[in-house]
Amino acid sequence: MSRLRLTYKDDDGVPLEDMEASEGTDDADLWFLPGPIEDEPDYLPPGPAPEAKEFEVVDAWRAAEAGQAAQLARVAARLGILDERLRRGPAGWRQRLALIEASDLSWLTQDRIGLDRLSLYMALRVSTVTDDAQALYRIGWTVRRLTGGPAPFARRSGVGDLETFLDRRNCTGQGERFEDAKAPSRVVEMAEREAFEDRAAGWLAMMDQAEDLHPVTRACMGFHLWHVAELSPVDDPLEAAVTAARVAIADLAPSGSAPGAIFAPIAMGGGGGFRAIGDPPARLARWLSAMESATFAALRRLEEIEAWAAAAERTMAPLSGKTPPMLRHLFTSWPLVSVQLAEKLTGAHRATVQRNIDWMEERGLIREVTGQGRYRMWRIVETRATEARSMQDRDNAALAEDILDELAALQ
């Protein structure tokens, strides 16, 4: 049985198959038309790379920690030594280190608050006409958080702890209230934004996933994720740095024991640890190097203060009264001391304070650093620096004597 073939025609009687063949031939002759899309080169710029998932970010920091295990162990050992030294020392040592660290952090944020201005502001709330009130408020908050106050967060803590630590709460009885005349406008604006809680919750979730990391590594990760979470302005690393300094020392402050190190010094080792360039291994390497240098500098300062206090106690033994011991303790707690500051903190009369300071300066225990008639400030004379200068003088004298002997022998 033969099959029937049906042929479809258009209205003019032309078979449709012949029309399709002719159209294909005509399209082949259209050489001026662009070719198929898949044959053309892709000149478009690459699109945005997919964001890394949370577990991938934490895994990258775990790998970075494993690669820096030796240096991390050295940093942890020095932090332990610093913590033990502060536990055996007076509370003024912690305040002194906090003032130095806060002053160094102010240079990182372009506020440039020196130790003299910071000491006067923290003790007397004194500021000059040229001082920036917002900058002093910010660095004052830094000193308060480096010497005590609430912790940034505990294990499995909520957003409220972080808000209290950052002074973001503006409710009665919760945190430190903002004052319009003191609080910087940028911080106030960000505190009023409702999205802060969501961003803080995301940052805390990332930190909770990194609980198995060393506190130093965890602090470094938290610092570099701070601006990713938009918890502070991009050009303001102060809050992130202070929070990281408290997180890095969290395991060295057990409850019920004598207070030791409250923060891990970072800015004392330079600003290289805060550079946000490179992958996690490079950032962690810079962080550990800066923290190791900063911890070594802090230990050296404590040794100088301890040696000075022992020498000052022996030199000031003939003096009687309460003012000399209080002044000695004051000079170990504050990097720079003025007569006004000593008068307020010791409660002694200004003439008595001035007389004792002059006596200490004559004995070589302290030296003036301002070089002016009014608003003078003094600091201690470090024992190591004195010994180094005296050894250099002896070497120079011995060298001069050798030269004279050689000249005499030649004659």
From TrEMBL:
<feature type="region of interest" description="Disordered">
    <location>
        <begin position="1"/>
        <end position="29"/>
    </location>
</feature>
<feature type="compositionally biased region" description="Acidic residues">
    <location>
        <begin position="13"/>
        <end position="29"/>
    </location>
</feature>
<feature type="domain" description="HTH DNA binding">
    <location>
        <begin position="325"/>
        <end position="380"/>
    </location>
</feature>
<dbReference type="InterPro" id="IPR036390">
    <property type="entry name" value="WH_DNA-bd_sf"/>
</dbReference>
<dbReference type="Pfam" id="PF11972">
    <property type="entry name" value="HTH_13"/>
</dbReference>
<protein>
    <recommendedName>
        <fullName>HTH DNA binding domain-containing protein</fullName>
    </recommendedName>
</protein>
<dbReference type="InterPro" id="IPR021068">
    <property type="entry name" value="HTH_DNA-bd"/>
</dbReference>
